[in-house]
Amino acid sequence: MTLQFKPYFLFVLLFMGVSVEGILAQNQQGKASYYHKNLSGKKTYSGERYNSYLFTAAHRKYPMGTWLEITNTKSGIKSYVRVNDRGPHQRRLLIDVSFSAAKELGIVGAGIAPVQIRLLEDADLRDTLLSFLQKRDSLILKEHPYTVYVKKAKKKKSKKKKKKKR
């Protein structure tokens, strides 16, 4: 007899006391992309507005407000981001990071990079690291409130025929 995976299996585990962190605790590897600055001001899944200067990310499964450590596997550079959106919508990608996090990780030039994601648990988020991350984001917000970048539309020349007066 083979066991089949049932969709309610996750809910049974949660009811039995298995935490979401326990299920998602393993490191994930995949490709990351980034949100462009043009999306600044758009609402995210969590309800807050996207700010390209904050260190945020979009992930399909992690709960909102979860802190993640993202490592670029090619360069070894690390960045810490907070999940505030759902995505990415392309199946080949694992995570979308904000423009600032992408600059820190070195993704901006290539557009996509291989990364490793690690969930920061309570033991990792001691008072010093958590306060540092929160102060970093609050200072960035004071300096760069979300800005909406709007492309200027070119004016079309109207070719209206002038009516002659009689």
The number of E-state strands comes to: 6
Structural class: alpha/beta
Low-confidence spans: pLDDT under 50, at least 5 residues?
1-18
Q: Give the helices and strands as they follow along the chain.
A: HHEEEEEHEH
Share of β-strand residues: 15-25%
Number of helices: 4
Gross morphology is elongated
| Second rung of CATH, namely the architecture | Beta Barrel
Largest sheet descriptor: 6 strands, mixed, barrel
The strands making up the biggest β-sheet line up spatially as 1-5-2-4-3-6
At the fold tier of CATH, the topology name is Barwin-like endoglucanases
Explain how this protein is built.
The structure is a single chain. This protein has helices at residues 9-15, 20-24, 99-105, 127-143; strands at 28-34, 56-58, 67-72, 78-85, 95-97, 113-119. By secondary structure, the protein is α/β, with parallel strands linked by helices. The protein has one domain (17-143): Barwin-like endoglucanases (Beta Barrel). The protein has a 6-stranded mixed beta barrel. The termini are far apart.
